[in-house]
């Protein structure tokens, strides 16, 4: 891993108030080291980590992704009950889910209009709205 990727990873972890352990730094560098936002599953990040020569268990990848989300560094996007993606872009934006490739990509934010939401039940507040538009080739 190059120095700029490690620097970006270290800065990113600091933004979330997370201690830069070896495993966190390795995964953070893979996620944000090139400055490009990405959508990953735990499995795809695990494979990327193995390709880079870093030995991290799948359980550690899951736990680390959850820690990144809890720190506000990533958002988890649940596509269906059994498939979660983790997004390094944390502003509100919609997604396309490509059913034929199981890929999640950003959808144009400026083309989405939400005219209203139902009232939240008493004693609660809406924390986030996820919009996932499922696509299949015609």
From TrEMBL:
A Pfam entry, by short name:
FUR
Q: Which GO terms describe its biological process?
A: negative regulation of DNA-templated transcription; regulation of secondary metabolite biosynthetic process
Q: Which InterPro entries match?
A: FUR, WH-like_DNA-bd_sf, WH_DNA-bd_sf
User: Can you name a GO cellular component term?
Assistant: cytoplasm
State any single GO MF term: zinc ion binding
Checking SUPFAM superfamilies in the record gives:
Winged helix' DNA-binding domain (SSF46785)
**Which keywords are on file for this protein?**
Cytoplasm, DNA-binding, Iron, Metal-binding, Repressor, Transcription, Transcription regulation, Zinc
Q: Where in the cell is it found?
A: Cytoplasm
Chief subcellular location equals cytoplasm
**UniProt signal peptide:** none
Family designation: Belongs to the Fur family.
Spell out the PANTHER family in the cross-references.
FERRIC UPTAKE REGULATION PROTEIN (PTHR33202:SF7), ZINC UPTAKE REGULATION PROTEIN (PTHR33202)
UniProt subunit comment: Homodimer.
Identify the NCBIfam families for this entry: FeRespRegIrr, TransRegIrrA
The name this protein goes by in its record? Ferric uptake regulation protein
**Gene this protein is translated from:** fur
